[in-house]
């Protein structure tokens, strides 16, 4: 928004150009904040959302000062509510302001009081960076996440959510001063961008493989595009899927627990763009023999190694004197961790931990450590695991470290009492049997499984409804069978790439060798969906069923069955129209007679109706349906002529432009007089497909009309009946 400062001194043409550029920025912020009920910028990154959010608020304030746009001022007001407490945590992220404010702003002041008993400090007016996508200490936390906690409770690189800096503060201070100078200004009015929701995935979802991103209603928007590389990245076109737009993002090569964001945008008739974003997390692979869980490879990889930094293993303390250290180095062509100790007595013990980190080892049987003792004969090591309740001595005491690279494997399932693998914290201890320096190298820590038996199978794959709407409950089913009677670690339904945990149909059934049924029930957003099932027994590699197409979910725009004797929402233009015996009867005058329904903003939709073309006295045996109707001279029309009509074109699609009619397609399907058939017109962009009783008759391509209402038509004294008129998208 630095352009705003050039605006007052620019010439007229440059001012116009500057305002256009600034308006694009304003529209981006307005449309990005309508994704949430709190009017906060929908960008929950790893450094907190408040810094970009407050910066945009300063930009909006400056725009209002220059151009008096109440929509920008309203965005400022709502955005400030978020900062001062109108958020899911009811927290003011400005220290000392409000009834419940942040008490641990991570500054030098907090560091000075950093202890287990520290109550934090008040740093009046300091705004912290706020919610992240995930808890910096727990990759499986809720999304978005925030907790006001001290530095003492955090690990390396995990302080960012409560960071305070001038860059974070600048937007807030400018906005407050701007509001003070415009305290009597009204934020009523102004034009905001068209809402562009993303219906799936939603923030907090876990995904695998190909992820389908669905837009919501896109009325008034076209040219929808998506980007998985940020708003400054490349936008690619989305495609129409069941009346909405969709795009597929391949996350199969993405790192486990990676937090991802997808942005979409659309353009309205004036060229203004609307934006929307969604966030999701890449699910970890299931624990099978082919996919070990790498905790730390000491080269920057692994669940902990990728975030721990160079000092990822901390010498927590050295018991009975001496010093100890951890560094990363290279040995034998490997990047390794070097743990060293210089004791002052033979009973000196050095303890190393990955800060406060814990790891979920669920589903894995073995914990492996690849170690080497370069030549220190007096060096001994002990490895402990704490599950939050008790500490297990994996090595059974201090052991000698092999002088060649050796993979030490410990059977977690053999521990007694049974270990809780959900929250494991590791400790590595060193000891020297005589006073003197010693060191040990470690190349990798990982959790593993060993293959045995045969893989399970998945059968009886189904979903109970092939079609439905947003209110339909869809139940997905499969049967898991394992010849060794091993239970599944997890039975997953992968629906549009989103992971859902299935439940047993009969929880009491513990026999898996003869098949156990699982199900998952959910509602779905509008669009064409796909699914498969994914599982492992942990002793064989994970398996997936084939991808299934469906179900298809539509949005009902209109339903007229006329059972109440009324034609609510229908407006005749001429002729005689009425409801007779729960059917809509229309009889034309000397030419076309229409009855119109629906909205002019409808773009892509499916019109379905039952129509009976009668042989009434003096009638022309000619009726029809209208689509994308603009007015009496501009529309698409499907002629329907019964078998007693002279024309061989019983079904004929035409367009009328300023009253001039052009044939787009036709068929000679049999239409018996006084007989109901179900006709369907599918409008998908420029493609128009016409069906009779579920059978495709023909398709046409035309770009003349992109939106419009629907209607019923009779011609030249013809009487026709219409029933069960349904419009979906």
Automatic annotation (TrEMBL):
Question: What parts of the sequence cross the membrane?
Answer: none
Please list the residue ranges annotated as the Glycoside hydrolase family domain. Answer: 15-175
Query: Which key words are in the record?
Result: Carbohydrate metabolism, Polysaccharide degradation
Q: Which InterPro entries match?
A: 6-hairpin_glycosidase_sf, 6hp_glycosidase-like_sf, Glyco_hydro_9
Coiled-coil regions, chain positions: none
Q: Which domain of life is it from?
A: Bacteria
> Is the keyword Flavoprotein assigned to this protein?
no
SUPFAM superfamilies documented for this protein: Six-hairpin glycosidases (SSF48208)
List the Pfam families: Glyco_hydro_9 (PF00759)
Name of the molecule in the record: Glycoside hydrolase family 9 domain-containing protein
Task: Give the source species.
Answer: Paenibacillus plantarum
């Amino acid at each position: 928004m630095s352009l705003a400062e050039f605006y007052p001194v620019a010439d007229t043409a440059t001012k116009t150009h500057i305002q256009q550029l600034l308006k694009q920025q304003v529209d981006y912020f307005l449309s990005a904040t309508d994704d949430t009920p709190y009017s906060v910028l929908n960008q929950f990154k790893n450094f907190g959302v408040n810094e970009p959010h407050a910066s945009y608020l300063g930009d909006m304030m400056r725009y209002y000062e220059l151009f008096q746009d109440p929509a920008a001022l309203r965005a400022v007001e709502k955005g400030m509510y978020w900062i001062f407490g109108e958020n899911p945590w009811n927290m003011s992220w400005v220290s000392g302001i409000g009834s419940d404010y942040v008490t641990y702003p991570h500054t030098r002041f907090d560091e000075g009081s950093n202890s287990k008993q520290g109550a934090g400090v008040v740093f009046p007016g300091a705004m912290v960076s706020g919610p992240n996508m995930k808890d910096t200490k727990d990759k499986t936390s809720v999304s978005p996440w925030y907790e006001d906690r001290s530095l003492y409770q955090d690990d390396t690189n995990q302080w960012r959510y409560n960071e305070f800096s001038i860059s974070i503060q600048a937007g807030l201070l400018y906005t407050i001063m701007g509001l003070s100078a415009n305290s009597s200004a009204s934020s009523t009015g102004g034009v905001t961008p068209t809402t562009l929701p993303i219906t799936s995935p939603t923030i907090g979802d876990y995904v695998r493989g190909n992820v389908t991103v669905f837009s919501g209603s896109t009325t008034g928007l076209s040219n929808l595009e998506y980007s998985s590389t940020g708003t400054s990245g490349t936008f690619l076109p989305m495609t129409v899927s069941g009346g909405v737009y969709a795009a597929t993002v391949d996350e199969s090569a993405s790192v486990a627990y990676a937090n991802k964001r997808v942005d979409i945008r659309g353009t309205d008739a004036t060229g203004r763009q609307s934006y929307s974003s969604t966030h999701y997390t890449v699910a970890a692979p299931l624990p099978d023999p082919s996919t070990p869980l790498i905790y730390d490879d000491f080269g920057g990889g692994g669940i902990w190694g990728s975030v721990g930094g160079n000092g990822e293993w901390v010498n927590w303390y050295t018991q009975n004197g001496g010093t100890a250290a951890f560094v990363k180095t290279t040995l034998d062509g490997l990047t390794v961790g070097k743990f060293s100790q210089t004791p002052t007595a033979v009973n000196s013990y050095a303890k190393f931990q990955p800060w406060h980190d814990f790891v979920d080892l669920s589903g894995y049987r073995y914990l492996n450590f690849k170690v080497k003792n370069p030549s220190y004969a007096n060096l001994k090591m002990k490895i402990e695991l704490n599950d939050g309740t008790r500490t297990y001595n994996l090595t059974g005491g201090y052991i000698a470290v092999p002088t060649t690279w050796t993979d030490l494997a410990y059977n977690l399932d053999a521990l007694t009492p049974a270990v809780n693998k959900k929250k494991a914290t590791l400790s590595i201890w060193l000891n020297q049997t005589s006073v003197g320096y010693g060191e040990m190298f470690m190349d990798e820590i990982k959790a593993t499984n060993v293959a045995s038996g045969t893989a399970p199978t998945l059968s009886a794959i189904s979903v109970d409804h092939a079609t439905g709407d947003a209110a339909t409950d869809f139940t997905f089913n499969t049967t898991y069978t394992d010849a060794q009677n091993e239970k599944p670690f997890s039975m997953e339904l992968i629906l549009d790439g989103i992971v859902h945990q299935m439940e047993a149909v009969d929880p009491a059934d513990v026999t898996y060798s003869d098949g156990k049924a699982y199900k998952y029930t959910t509602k779905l957003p509008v669009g064409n969906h796909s699914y498969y099932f994914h599982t492992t027994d942990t002793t064989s590699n994970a398996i997936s069923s084939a991808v299934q197409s469906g179900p298809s979910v539509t949005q009902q725009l209109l339903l007229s069955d006329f059972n109440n004797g009324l034609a609510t929402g229908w407006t005749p233009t001429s002729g005689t129209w009425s409801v007779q015996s729960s059917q809509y009867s229309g009889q034309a005058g000397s030419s076309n007679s229409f009855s119109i329904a629906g909205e002019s903003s409808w773009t892509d939709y499916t019109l379905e109706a039952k129509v009976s073309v009668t042989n009434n006295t003096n009638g022309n045996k000619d009726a029809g349906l209208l689509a994308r109707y603009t007015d009496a001279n501009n529309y698409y029309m499907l002629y329907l002529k019964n078998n007693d009509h002279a024309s061989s074109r019983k079904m004929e699609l035409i367009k009328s432009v300023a009253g001039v009619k052009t044939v787009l397609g036709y068929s000679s399907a049999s239409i018996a007089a006084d007989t109901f058939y179900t006709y369907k017109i599918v409008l998908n962009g420029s493609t128009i497909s016409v069906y009779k009783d579920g059978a495709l008759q023909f398709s046409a391509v035309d770009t003349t009309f992109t939106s419009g209402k629907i209607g019923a038509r009779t011609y030249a004294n013809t009487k026709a009946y219409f029933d069960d008129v349904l419009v979906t998208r």
